[in-house]
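Recap from last week: sequence in, structure out.
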Amino acid sequence: MIGDGLDAYNQQALGYTDRRPLSVVVRDPDTGDAIGGITGRTSLGLAFLDLFYLPDSQRGAGLGTKILQAFEDEARRRGCSSAVLYTISFQAPGFYEKNGWVRFGEISSEREGVSRVFMTKKLDLPQRA
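Predicted structure tokens:
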């Protein structure tokens, strides 16, 4: 509903709208149930990573990096040249930095030592032949 209104406004202002969801889902191989992954969206050449979760049992073996790479690759295919996200200081800023993301802001919370960390990454678009 809110997204539809925003799409209509963008359509009127720009002559088009291109906001699309972008998800990478990790499924339990036995049940097929979703157990983690990324949700986000793309719009106007920018990818937004909204949520990223993997259960503890799936961390540490490179799966998170593969999922993040899949998200970035799909964003590139859609013509995105940059991506943005925020994480919380106790969650995963180091993981994102190891994968080429750069901090561009931080906002403290009411909880001492806890902040929201805003990050971005340039997504080099594939070269066209």
